Structure to design on (902 residues):
């Protein structure tokens, strides 16, 4: 029997599903979220809970944090500002601090120190000029389509007020690549390595890829990395609590099989078990690609649109490593309460990217390592440690997936061993999730961080596709709200928040 | 080593080439879809007269043909085209069009339902990439079969009699239906379809039987005034009946370079084909929006004063304001009138007072004529015999 129990069905209880749900619920609607995952994933080692996909907060949207009142729903920060260590294999680490990582402790030449201070300030300035774009629907190119001209003028004015030289520099930065910028300004390989890693984290770009600087500016506009108390799982829990407190119903273990479409209008969803649920408004907070090709299906869409979404780029290059350690590892004295970046040079980052273009595994991957258990108890049984790492780059579609996973694990552990001799002996359990595993578990197409690559040709009004950038789909009553939409991924809630605003504006 | 000689014969030859070339006394060839195609065999007036008074044979082979098979064939065609292909019964044919996402026409064509899961789509332009892209998500196979089919169009009042004389009894065949006959070592499919608006049939077989078919039909039609006709005569007939041709009367969306050149079914008077209730088809949302908002252009049949063909003429409102363009025109031999098909901006259509500016070349001097234009119903010429079943004995 079809049931009509709510005003809005949101598909997916990720950060964006929760953000869109709460905003609509606070406007007085009855919202039901359907989430495929039954409960937490089974722990990967005795005494360890399974870590969520994300391990750090890079760009939580302040509007979402305040609008969901996350602090009163349990969110506190174990590290409100997290320093970064560029880990050296000879112990000469660099410690980068401040929200823009502009301050450096460690063996760095005075020239580089000055140059990086200037460059990081400039990048941060540029990032803050671009920041307002994140909070609005992407501007549209056509005339008379209701662009927020006032907001756009403000962005333009701010950019112009930097002065002619800086404005020109901003435009140059849009189009340039990270490698060239780093080598124009800096000489220290370790510093350049850590920065090249940060710039390309979560993208399918190497530092030398054209336009690779733009996603870096976008990352910087989110503020620096932070670690919630209890880890990212606790941040997710606070979002869920807040949603439920606002009256949102979250039904887990409910996997949506397809959208119900009648007369060109979305009228509900059908769960994998066959159960039908109806609502006048359906918001999909799973990727645009899986929404349109999977839940809606090509049969209900125009051929041209189906073509474009099929060819939307969604290749994941990041793997996630989870290690259970029997004791505390030593990264040659590096502070374990920092974010440890293992990327000896910008060349290394580029070389780690090369093989994945051909579906192969790099010999020396680069990675971002975190020890949540160094910050607080609760992540691992007493005396033991949890190590999580984002390892780049991993092929998203290798010929032999199991072999690639095994090779990737071996290569990642070898890199860890090189930077933390003896760590191999501490490992009691290891889990490596390749992009295709991530796709299977969380539904991110290609395992891509942003649910559809974030690169200049898939940003702003081109995100996820031209014609779809306003969160609205051609199917009436069906809206998009995932990281695949503007402005992209991360545990930010921004696309969800923007989508809710667009829905409200449209009066739907 | 391969010898590259393709450039020596840039135009393909149809399976009927041996016969069409022999009959082509004027050596008048044109390029139709990459094939050498006869424009006028001998005499345009005689060839047109055969269409309207006796029987005419036109080589259809260059027409592009696609075969669509599989369990989802009907669903696929419903999503591709605007008409309801599921409602088309096996053994029937319908005229249809298809659009891009913006609801602009890509082509028109005839759709033949050969079996429950087996269709043939005949059209003017080539579309394989679009047809294959449209197949994503459907359990169908789509392939071009232009070269695998040999087809003739037999049109005119004595065409049914010619077929009877050839041993194919088509007296019970209704318009837009097909019938299958044994022929030689193979088969002949006859559909009561055509592009002339007259009594007529199209004959479909395999290339190996092409020349036999030609000889057989001409022998049977000898005393019935049968003659081969070229594209020029066919063009006169299609104008008289008001049929459109892609790339003559509208620029297909996938080829239009200029943003404002593509036309929708509403703008070409083809919206009657759209089945709004069948579910999704490509362009549906855009066309619904256009339906609500109104269209910029209209497509009309017009009569024009005087006896000079208005080919390419610009239409004016009140002799001053540009209002549209003639896409096809002729002095109709049947109606003894100057007729034309035209794209006209809707806002001028309502006002009337339309004029055609015709440039008539008179011994290297243009005579510029401003002739009055009257919008009339299409078809301009529609004899009852085109529909009568059984067909009249002429
Ligand atoms: C290796 C890796 C590491 C990352 N690390 C970080 C990090 O440290 N910090 C950070 O900020 N970001 C990180 N990200 C990015 C971040 O995880 C995503 O951008 C973010 O989760 C996107 O949020 P979302 O709400 O749009 O989608 P998701 O979080 O993917 O939420 C979608 C939800 O929908 C559910 N779902 C899918 N299909 C269905 C269905 N058919 N029916 C019902 N439910 C369904 C899924 O189970 C999922 O819970 C990482 C990404 C990767 C690949």
């Amino acid at each position: 029997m079809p049931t009509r129990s709510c005003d809005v069905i949101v598909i997916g209880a990720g950060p964006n599903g929760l953000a869109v749900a709460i905003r609509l619920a606070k406007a007085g609607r009855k919202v039901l979220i359907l989430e495929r995952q039954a409960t937490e994933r089974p722990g990967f080692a005795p005494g360890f809970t399974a870590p969520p996909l994300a391990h750090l907060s890079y760009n939580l949207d302040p509007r979402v944090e305040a609008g969901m009142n996350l602090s009163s729903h349990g969110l506190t920060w174990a590290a409100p500002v997290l320093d970064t260590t560029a880990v050296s294999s000879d112990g000469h680490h660099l410690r980068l601090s401040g929200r823009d990582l502009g301050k450096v402790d460690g063996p760095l030449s005075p020239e580089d120190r000055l140059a990086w201070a200037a460059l990081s300030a400039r990048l941060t300035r540029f990032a803050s000029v671009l920041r307002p774009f994140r909070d609005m629907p992407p501007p549209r190119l056509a005339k008379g389509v209701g662009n927020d001209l006032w907001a756009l003028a403000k962005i333009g004015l701010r950019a112009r007020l930097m002065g002619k030289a800086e404005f020109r520099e901003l435009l140059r930065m849009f189009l340039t690549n990270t490698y060239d910028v780093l080598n124009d300004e800096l000489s220290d390989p370790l510093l350049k390595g850590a920065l090249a890693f940060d710039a390309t984290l979560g993208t399918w770009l190497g530092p030398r890829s054209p336009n690779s600087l733009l996603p870096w500016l976008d990352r910087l506009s989110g503020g620096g990395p932070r670690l919630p108390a209890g880890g990212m799982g606790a941040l997710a829990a606070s979002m869920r609590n807040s949603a439920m407190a606002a009256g949102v119903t979250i039904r887990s273990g409910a996997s949506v099989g397809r959208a119900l479409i009648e007369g060109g209008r979305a009228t509900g969803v059908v769960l994998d078990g066959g159960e039908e649920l109806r609502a006048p408004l359906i918001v999909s907070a799973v990727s645009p690609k899986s929404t349109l090709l999977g839940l809606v299906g090509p049969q209900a869409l125009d051929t041209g649109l189906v073509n474009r979404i099929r060819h939307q780029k969604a290749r994941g290059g990041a793997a996630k490593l989870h290690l259970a350690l029997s004791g505390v590892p030593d990264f040659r004295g590096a502070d374990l309460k920092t974010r440890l970046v293992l990327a000896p040079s910008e060349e290394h980052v580029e070389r780690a990217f090369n093989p994945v273009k051909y579906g192969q595994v790099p010999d020396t991957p680069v990675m971002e390592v975190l020890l949540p258990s160094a910050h607080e108890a609760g992540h691992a049984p007493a005396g033991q440690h949890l190590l999580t790492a984002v390892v780049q780059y991993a092929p998203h579609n290798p010929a032999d997936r199991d072999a690639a996973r095994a090779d990737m694990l071996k290569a990642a552990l070898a890199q860890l061993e090189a930077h933390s001799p003896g760590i191999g002996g501490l490992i009691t359990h290891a889990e490596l999730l390749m992009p295709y595993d991530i796709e299977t578990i969380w539904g991110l197409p290609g395992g891509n961080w942003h649910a559809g690559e974030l690169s200049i040709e898939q940003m702003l009004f081109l995100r996820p596709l031209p014609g779809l950038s306003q969160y609205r789909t051609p199917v009436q009553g069906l809206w998009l709200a995932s990281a695949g939409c503007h402005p992209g991924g991360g545990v930010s809630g921004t696309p969800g928040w923007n989508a809710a605003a667009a829905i409200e504006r449209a009066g739907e | 080593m391969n010898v590259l000689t393709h450039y020596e014969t840039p135009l393909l030859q149809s399976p009927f080439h041996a016969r069409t070339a022999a009959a082509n006394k004027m050596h008048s060839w044109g390029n139709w879809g990459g094939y050498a195609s006869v424009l006028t065999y001998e005499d345009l007036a005689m060839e047109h007269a055969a269409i309207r008074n006796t029987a005419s044979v036109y080589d259809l082979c260059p027409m592009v043909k696609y075969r669509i098979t599989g369990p989802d064939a009907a669903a696929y065609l419903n999503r591709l085209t605007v008409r309801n292909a599921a409602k088309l019964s096996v053994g029937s044919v319908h005229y249809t069009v298809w659009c891009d996402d913006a609801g602009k026409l890509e082509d028109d064509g005839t759709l033949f339902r050969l079996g429950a899961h087996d269709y043939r789509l005949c059209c003017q332009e080539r579309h394989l990439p679009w047809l294959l892209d449209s197949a994503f998500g459907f359990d169908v196979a789509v392939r071009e079969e232009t070269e695998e089919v040999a087809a003739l169009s037999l049109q005119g009042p004595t065409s049914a009699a010619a077929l009877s004389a050839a041993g194919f009894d088509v007296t019970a065949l209704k318009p837009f239906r097909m019938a299958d006959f044994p022929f030689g070592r193979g088969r002949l499919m006859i559909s009561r379809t055509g592009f002339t608006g007259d009594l007529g049939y199209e004959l479909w077989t395999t290339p190996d039987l092409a020349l036999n078919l030609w000889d057989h039909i001409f022998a049977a039609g000898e005393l019935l005034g049968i003659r081969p006709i070229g594209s020029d005569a066919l063009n006169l007939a299609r104008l008289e009946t008001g049929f459109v041709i892609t790339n003559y009367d509208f620029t297909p969306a996938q080829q239009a370079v200029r943003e404002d050149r593509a036309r929708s079914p509403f703008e070409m008077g083809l919206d009657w084909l759209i089945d709004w209730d069948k579910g999704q088809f490509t362009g549906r949302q855009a066309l619904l929006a256009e339906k609500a908002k109104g269209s910029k252009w209209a497509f009309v049949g017009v009569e024009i004063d005087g006896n000079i063909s208005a080919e390419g003429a610009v239409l004016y409102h009140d002799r001053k304001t540009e209002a549209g363009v003639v896409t096809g025109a002729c002095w109709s031999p049947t109606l003894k009138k100057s007729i034309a098909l035209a794209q006209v901006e809707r806002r001028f259509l309502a006002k009337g007072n339309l004029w055609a500016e015709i440039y008539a070349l008179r011994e290297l001097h243009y005579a510029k004529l401003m002739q009055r234009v009257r919008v009339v119903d299409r078809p301009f010429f529609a004899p009852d015999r085109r529909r009568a079943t059984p067909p009249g004995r002429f």
Remarks:
- Residues 193 and 370 of chain B are 38 Å apart (CA to CA).
- The domain at 17-61+149-229 of chain B is CATH 3.30.1360.120 (Gyrase A; domain 2).
- DSSP finds nine helices and 19 strands in chain B.
